[in-house]
């Protein structure tokens, strides 16, 4: 009897291990860093960003998690989001500033492990000096609204 139970447990463990390698099995997500697939960033961000959707769909209603890989010297102009934005710095240094004007001297430099959460509608800007990866968690659909319409890469000529 103990042998049969052990074999059943082993079969479930093997099935669970196989499912763990699948990105989205049975309502859960498990990814090792080397399984993350990077693509060009969304057109709503300045060119040069890369993104990887880890969970959910940023374009649909519901919870999502995505990572942004930003090159050195990258800038995100003054903007706001209609949903709360929750961000963790994974690597590099993410400079984040708040207010109604871009003033790099007032930005806070958050290193790997740093974190911020901004409520919907909070105006802010960001930039990098070195390649930086951040993880963004929020409720979709995700949107970015630029304070100055000429800063919006979707309408740039």
Please identify the oligomeric state: single chain
CATH topology of the largest domain: Jelly Rolls
Proportion of β residues?
35-45%
Under CATH, the homologous superfamily of the largest domain reads Jelly Rolls
Structural class: mainly beta
CATH structural class of the largest domain? Mainly Beta
Q: Give the helices and strands as they follow along the chain.
A: HEEEEEEEEEEEEE
- Domain count: 2
Give the N-to-C terminal Cα separation.
Answer: 73 Å
Low-confidence stretches: 1-24
Radius of gyration: 19 Å
Compute the number of strand runs: 13
DSSP summary: helix tally: 1
CATH architecture of the largest domain: Sandwich
Order of strands across the widest beta sheet? Answer: 3-4-5-12-7-10
The percent of residues in helical segments reads 10-25%
The biggest sheet, with number of strands, parallel, antiparallel or mixed sense and barrel status, is: 6 strands, antiparallel
User: What coarse outline follows from CA principal-axis ratios?
Assistant: globular
Mean pLDDT: 86
Spell out the key features of this protein.
single chain, 157 residues, mainly beta, 5-stranded antiparallel beta sheet, Jelly Rolls, 2 domains, 13% helix, globular
């Amino acid at each position: 009897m103990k042998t049969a139970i052990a074999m059943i447990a082993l079969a479930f463990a093997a099935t669970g291990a196989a499912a763990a390698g699948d990105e989205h099995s049975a309502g859960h997500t498990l990814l090792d860093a080397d399984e993350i697939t990077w693509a060009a960033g969304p057109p709503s961000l300045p060119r040069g960003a890369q993104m990887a959707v880890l969970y959910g769909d940023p374009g649909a209603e519901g919870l999502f998690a995505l990572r942004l890989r930003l090159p050195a010297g990258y800038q995100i102009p003054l903007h706001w989001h209609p949903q709360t934005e929750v961000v963790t710095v994974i690597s590099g240094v993410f400079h984040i500033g708040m207010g109604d004007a871009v003033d790099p001297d007032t930005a806070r430099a958050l290193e790997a492990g740093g974190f911020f959460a901004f409520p919907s509608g909070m105006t802010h800007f960001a930039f990098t000096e070195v390649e930086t990866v951040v993880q963004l968690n929020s409720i979709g659909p995700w949107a970015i609204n630029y304070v100055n319409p000429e800063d919006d890469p979707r309408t740039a000529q």
